[in-house]
Amino acid sequence: MCRINVGGREISPGDDTEMFRSWLTDDAYLTIAKPSALPVNGSINLTFSSDTASYSAPREVYVTARTMGMSKTQNENYQLTWEFPVDSGFNYFVRLHFCEFQIEITKEGDRVFEILLANLIAETRADVITWSSGNGIPVYRDYVVSIGKKGNQKQQNLSITLHPSPSWRTLYSDTILNGLEIFKLSNGFSLSGPSFDLTSGPNIHPRKSPVTKKRTIIVGVVAPISGFITVSLLLFLIYRIHSNKFANSRGPTPPSDICPRLSLREIKTATNNFDKSFIIGRGGFGNVYKGFNNASSTPVAIKRLNPSSQQGVLEFRTEIEMLSKLRHQNLVSLIGYCEDKMEMILVYDYMVHGTLRDHLYNTNNPPLQWEQRLKMCIGAAQGLHYLYTGPNHTIIHRDVKTTNILINEKWIAKVSDFGLSKMNDLSNTHISTAVKGSIGYLDPEYYRLQKITEKSDVYSFGVVLCEVLCARAPIDRTTEDHMQISLAEWVQHCYINGILDQVIDTHLQGKIKLASLLKFGEVAINCLASEGIKRPTMSEVVYGLELALKLQGSEMNGNDENHANDSSTIDYHVLFSSGESMKVGR
């Protein structure tokens, strides 16, 4: 069984005063999304109807929600999806909780959307106001979904997808969900035991887009009152019996033969019992500590999952499996891992100089010279190229960014963080997968088609090249110039208009040979092509960057007219991967 407070915090049994239930956050299960978690509306007075009792869900479930943002048109091509691993060959009772509490949504037709369960249509015209008869009135909808057997596959994903209706049918192109519950039923439609690990997060499998799949779902509407009371009482007993067992379950342990397994005692010794003074970084996974190997006094980096987090389990195992198989001078090395007493910890070689971003902006570190930046970009590109050249599989990183490129004591760049990586058989041209990555680096084609190839990494690396050149973040929401919010779009605009030299890092102005700048800019712009097929391969990227380094190699002369500076306008041709050429500048 599973209960989710969508868009809100975790709710403990003590906070669910009437039924003593646990409600998890939805972050670990959210996959394909353009999401926006609405803040708690504590001022709203909820009105419970005769069809929805006050104990149906805690009040907090109904005053938090997740939406896509109240646009009138721009969300039509997107969807909001959650994935839950369940046992094959069973029926599942699914209850979706809704409550409109935004002041803009008061009438029928204000927010209308489709609901798909297991990629099959459950509702073609979901309108919470129609169902509940008003704003601030909770309502739920019940369904029974059949998950058939699929070969020898013991588990599959039960997906819940919300998609905005066309603009002619709804005032706002948006969706909303406040909470959900999933219960496993026996083949006789009675309640069965818990069917999946509540802390493990989704295991994504390729699937066709549910937006275009127009089949009818087998839906059973369960009697709302008596059925709910019966189910709730049974589930309460199951919760009391099984809560300890399943709270500690995180799925199978990675095989010990693929990577050394370390004890928690060793980790605590290396970090002085996780002393805060040993923390050298923080991320979505948790804290990163600097520790020391007792045998050799060698420094190591220790990444520890936040013990209170429900996220990172899948990423944890993916990183172990990926890095244990990879060996390259431009990839970080995994020394070992620890999975003990609810702790999940990864141990790497220590990178003395931190991340590439640490040396570009918002830092007290001295600025990198142009040659240094070029060599680091070449190293990172070589590491990524290695991922794509396996004899049977390619590995797509999916989260290429400057914080995932680390610098060792010799100033060699190494690609890190393989938690989102995907392995692709060479017979496939792409992988259909849930969209994941970082804002500002995400390939628009990947986001639109939900199909990822190595060219998606190439796009992200193009954004990295822009950061290296301009020393600014990929997204800058503080700028008043709308065109400059996205670094990738701004660099493309400047390149086409012949003013690329005017947006480079001020520390580099007058220090880059014009030929080197133009070659570097050409590589970056080609990486950012809107269509993946027009982007270069990573081997071509490496070649272009090496050429930019060679063009920079001759002696610099401060009076040389062939150096880029902050007052010139360049007259040159933009070269595209397709072979087309366009002259720009004056």
UniProtKB/TrEMBL annotation:
ATP binds at K303. Its main location: membrane. It is found in: Membrane. Residues 274-549 form the Protein kinase domain. The chain crosses the membrane at residues 217-239. Keywords: ATP-binding, Glycoprotein, Kinase, Membrane, Nucleotide-binding, Serine/threonine-protein kinase, Signal, Transferase, Transmembrane, Transmembrane helix. It holds the Pfam family PK_Tyr_Ser-Thr. GO terms for molecular function: ATP binding; protein serine/threonine kinase activity; transmembrane receptor protein tyrosine kinase activity. It is a single-pass type I membrane protein. One of its GO terms (cellular component) is plasmodesma. Signal peptide: none annotated. This is Protein kinase domain-containing protein. It comes from Gossypium barbadense (Sea Island cotton).
